[in-house]
Here is the input.
Amino acid sequence: MQEKALYTVVVADDEDELREAVCSMLPWEELGFRLVGSASNGLDALELVEELEPDLLMTDIRMPFISGIELARQVREVRPAINIAFLSGYDDFEYAKQAIQYNIISYMLKPLTMDGLAAELRNIRQKIDAQFEMFRQAQNDLNAQQDSQGAFLLPLVLDDYATGGEGETQEAQAETYARQCGLLRDADDSPHYVLMASSLLEADGANCTAPSFVSTVEALANKYLRHASFFTTGKVITVLLGNPSDFEEYLHILADEIPQMAARVLGKRCRIGVSRVTPRLTGLHNAYREAMEALRQGDPQESGAQFVGDLRPAVKGGSLLCRRALEVLDQHYMDADLSLVSLSSMLEVSPNHLSACIKKYAGETFINILIGKRMEAARDLLLTSPLKIQEVAQRCGYTDQHYFSYCFKKYCGTSPNALRRQHEAKKAVTP
Here is the structure.
């Protein structure tokens, strides 16, 4: 198999002997993979995923600091295109069912044999091959119902909707047509809507979006939200349906996964513009204008999604947003539940946009900046206060003292207790 066809993989397991055996004894390239990193805990695994962007993460479920389930959830937030394989004991199977929604491609029971693991990796490779081939070939197999939905949505989205009625009458007529073509289920079905415009670009910036891209967008949208799509010149228009809570949980993940898959599988950039939520079908034309405004405002040299809500006011863009994010992080780093998603909610921007701004203007990932802030605060407390280690950990956002001590030693090169002993020794010899 040629190098370009190898799928990259990160292995995470706290059992050193097993992890080292898996990493060193498997014929990775013969199996179609390239091992790019390994980790002994969930925290290090998450950092490797952000840094290396592998195609596959193989992880134990029960690990220190961040469990495999929580790791899968956090990985989905930052790299939804990554597949995840669980390695764990039989008793964890029911527990693992919680994570099926997080792109779990395999569940392997311990104890493992190298032959058994190799066989399962061949199966995983075939599954990823199938995923990539679907995305690459993008068979345009829209059925009759999808065709009728596109025919209904196209004028509704692209033109000012007019049926001779006004206000509620106009909306009622649109809902009637939507039920007739299957977009809405029945008279009680009253979702909200978001419009997403997606374009594929060549390396030189030329638009190369084809009608077949509708199928690939829909295949990924199937995992998260109800939807209907159609092609118009240079872009795929997707109307997403759901409750506001559905959009809050899934929209930014879908908007991340499409460009990630386009880059990995097609070698092309994908730009996406996303509208605000609207409760009315007759609001889709305005939503289309919002999505196109977002698409035009995004950086054409970068893959990714631009949400119209991220464009205004000015503080939501570029270096100003990064500066504001760092200010808010300074105020909330001690919150144990602080995450990229919760921080983006405070700033009223999408996680996609915030993550990109932080990386571009601060030169680091959110998680590394958060850990650095917590460790600097912890160092100061250890040297200037009589607080116990557990109390210092809690004041810096850690509920687990062992997790805190691990992070501190990794960041500062010494344990919290050793730092204090060194400090006291220096004070004792200083005149």
